[in-house]
Fold each of these.
Amino acid sequence: MAQNKETRSYKFVVTEEIRAEWDNRIHPTLQDTLYDGLKAPDDDMDAELLQKCQEQKAADALKQVEAAKYRLRNAEYALEWAKDRGFETEFNNTRLQADVTFAVEKVAKTIDTHRFHTNAAHAYWYYLQ
């Protein structure tokens, strides 16, 4: 009787057969490394569910992008307000500039998150074709 071998794919443990099928259905325009962080689907039904989950995560990430942009505008307004009213102390400028920098980084990070989940949904979509 053949042994059912398992392999570790990032944080997911799958059989070699499932992983091989997943590896043979890699989307031609997505980076191969994207697949390292994705669960290989057990079957088509699982792939459909995983695709929907990734689409929902992408939609949520897009809302987070909008919220991060709002926080960035607020941080920029606070910095501008302090300058306009003569509250330009070294402490104030450093703190307010740090708020702006943090908000810029948050926008970039949430855009990357949105891209990852969108691409993940595309990977599952391609698997189903």
Amino acid sequence: MAKIEKGHPLPSHTKLKYDECHAKILLEKFFPEVYNDLQISDRPDLRDVVNSVGVEVTSAIPQGEQEALAIACTIPYLSKKGRERKITYLKAKGYDYSKYVMSHPPRGYAWTGSDYPDIEITFCKDFLSAVKAKIKNSIAASMRHCRGTICLYYLK
């Protein structure tokens, strides 16, 4: 298991996934009457065996964007040569990094005018794709583990 150091980003290889931990904290904090003792597991991602509740968690942030964010978080802790190598890699992927700030290629997060844009060309496309993939890959396995599965579609 990777070593966790105070004041540093979490190591990239841990048994826990950030989105699942975040969903667990939010659900237990804001819906304690339903989710009071969620355990992190696999299929479903969160499970409350006492109340027979299972939750599948998915992220709408594309894998490439997640990778870029993870790399950017580690850059301040690298050697000068390591920083240069990671910044060059990010630039090749279309990201601009400067000290503690990273910008990514423009995306359709907002629109102007009175007409709504086609949902398939906005950031919602990533969310819809993530939901479709999660349902396709896990619904059968989730149903084997608990009586009722609630799918939580988590969008940052």
Amino acid sequence: MHVYILPQYLNERSHLQAGPSNGFLQVLHEVPDLYKAFSTESLSALVATNTDQVQASAKEVILSEPGQLMDLLRTSRPWIATVSLEDQDGGDAQVVFTPAAVSGISGSFLGLRQVYLSHSRLGPSAVQLLVKAHMPRLQVLHLTRNSLGAAGVRHLAQGSWPELEQLQLRCTNLDVQAVSELLQGSWPVLHTLNLHGNKLDRAAAGHLGAIIDSFPKIQTLELSGNDQAQSLSMIFQANKPWPHLTALDLSCCNLEADDIQSLVVASLPQLHFLNLDENKLCQRAMQQLVTGLWPHLEHLSIVYQDMEASSVALLQHASWSLKTLRLYKGKRNMGYDHEAEVSGLIKANWPGMESLSLAAPDHCTFAKLCKGVWPMLQHLVVSIERCDALLIKSLVNSSWGELKSLSLRTYTISPCAFLIFGIMFDQFQAVPQMIEDRELIISSESSDEGPLPQGSAARSLWPHLDTFSLKMRHPYEMHIPHTIFDVEHLLFA
């Protein structure tokens, strides 16, 4: 149940005091939105009057404006487990709390585990509020898209949170000095650190490399959106292992072949997930990448790379047991040999492949893709040029009996293909679900009762399929009769 604390809203109701005998508690349990009718003070009075039952329900507090954070932290509320602040992106001015306001913070929150303050226009003084409050059990702290800078991180590092596990600092205006301050934090069990979209370039590489010294339990590290060109050799030094690191996001980091070489020689024995989207991975970079000795690597994403098909085909030589592979979205450069790429991929020994995202634009390439031996494949996203009966035939002849979701993105759809899909999904409502950004989306998703109906042809082909989507870009450039979406009309006309 959520508790909404709104700014002095309907204060005339603050005289309502709930007692065990008037049944008001039962109303609150049945109509949780009624909490919105109370001011901060009246809600506090309510909790104080009916401690056990209300406290059990009021474990999550959602604040509507930053000033309420100060009011909340002035009091002790040991029953609260989660505090969130609604997005404040509508304003430009940074929220500043005076030194007097900070000094007045003395609240104790013994049960508080999670604090979500992203997109809240908060600055260093807001961090001081958090540090002043007593939150010894805090485990998750999200401060994404707040202008903290080095000053804010300096305060943050003073936080006495021995159980802190996750720290989100995406787009918080961090620089070299901020990272240096961050390393002073004493959070022995911190395992997730997100530094996406800051000002961390080569000058910060030395400090980033010290993350493993300050936080030896780190498992997930996101450095995406920072220019890390020629930096990985300093961050991941060959003689300094990262024994617990399982997930690494280096997307949009301007990486080149030399950086990949540094990554390959690093000691990352438990690496499980690697995101290298939107970098500069040429053929030499891919040759380096596939030599990575990461026995546990299962998830790889290299979306939006300007590579040759032969570079992607090199993945077949890697020793990883991939379960997820994301190659790219949309179209490649003119003349790109998709067939050569797919030919290389289907030769890879990935019997445990579960999720695949790639392009197979022409019939020949798509037919070859459908011959891929991936018995555990559950999720497939394919970009194609034209969806027609021939393509559907190749799809039907695949051996992907475990498929759960299928997404086809196309530029052209034949009326015959609509009819076939309508028959295959006999309770599939083949109507446009959304038309925006010049993209037509037609989808069939399972209801709460379960997957697709047993009687459907698609259900017999893919017993576990519960989601199907067909996206057509630029739908207004072709004429599709409205009745083509009405399968029943087409069948019995």
Amino acid sequence: MTQVRIRHAQFRYLVPYTDAEGRDRLAIRHAIRNETVDLPRDSDYRRGLDSGAFFMDEEGEPETTEPEELDFSNHTQLVRWIRDEKPNAQTVVDAADDDPFKAEALLAAEHEANGSQPRKTVVEKLEAIMEEEE
């Protein structure tokens, strides 16, 4: 069994089990982005490696730990998080935790990470958090 942290939005894998009549079966499971799961079948692990479905460490091994705590005073870390981890829009907004300082830092990182194409939902919701303080 191999433990991995899912990079793709969704990853399908199979888990063996024995049904009530004693037959060996496979159940379909779905893991979502950032979820850490145990893959019991080598074929699912190899498929995930081939498709880039797992977060990998510097040595090319599957990464199983959660990402570091975000440092909102570190613009470069926030840009890398948005660019490399590709959190969905709601995850970015939730990271602001209704804090105008965090919202402003995340908004600047969103603009840099996505160039001329910042996500409209992220921009609108972060700006709304920033306006609440005024």
